Structure formats: structure tokens, C-alpha cells
Amino acid sequence: RQTRFMIRSAFGGPDESYVASGSEDSQVYLWSRQDGSPYAVLPGHSGTVNAVAWNPVHCSMFASASDDHTVRIWGPKADAANGSCRNGGRSHTPLQQ
Predict the structure, then answer these.
(1) pLDDT digits (tens, 9 = 90+) for 32-49
(2) Under DSSP, is residue 71 helix (H, G, I), strand (E, B) or coil?
(3) Cα end-to-end span (Å), the chain
(4) Which of 30, 31, 50, 58 could form a disulfide with 40 if both were Cys (CB 3.0 to 4.6 A apart)?
(5) Cα separation, 75 vs 44, whole angstroms
């Protein structure tokens, strides 16, 4: 439940198949656009996460910005994101900071 902050969300990932959103509980949330199911909850900030933005070239990477004065870059574990959004890169592996 949002009480005092503006939280921005963004569509992204391979084929824009995910929604990423910040939250007041200092976590980043990812949902599947196909069925609305939760995909991941990513801890890493200590303040409200108020913005997320997907990388336009590496579609499995995105950034989150927080009131804790940090920006975190998220992407697939290992080197799973070899493709790019423009050439149909597909990566549905777990994410890490």
C-alpha cells in the first residue's frame, strides 16, 4: 500500500515480458506480464525504491534507484545475457545485483 511516495514501474525484459517496480519496503519486485504472477523479489536497498529503468540494449538488465542514495544494477546470474533486446536475446535466469 503506497502511503507517501511516488513509485515508478516499467515494462521490460525479453519481449517486454516483465514489470519491474520499486516499493516502500526497500525491495524491487518483478512480475510476469503474461499471467501477472510474481517472478522475483530483490532486496538490496535500505530506503524506498522509487524508480526502475530497463537497459535498452541488454534487455535482462535494469537499474533501481532508492531514497537511500544508491542506484543498483540488476542482471542475470553468471553470463546468461549474451543476446541483446534488438536481436531477440532471451534470458529468464535468476537475477542478481
Answers:
(1) 999 999 999 999 999 999
(2) strand
(3) 25
(4) 30
(5) 13
What CA–CA distance (Å, rounded) separates 57 from 76? 14
Amino acid 34 reads Q
3-class secondary structure, 16:
helix
Contacts of 25 (CB under 8 A, 6+ apart): none
Residue 88 binned pLDDT confidence (cut-offs 50, 70, 90): very low
Q: Where are the alpha helices (DSSP H) in the chain?
A: none
Query: Quick one: pLDDT band at residue 85, thresholds 50, 70, 90?
Result: low
d(CA 34, CA 50): 24
For position 70, what pLDDT does the model report? Answer: 95
Question: What integer is the mean pLDDT of 61-73?
Answer: 95
The span from the CA of 81 to the CA of 74, in Å, is 11
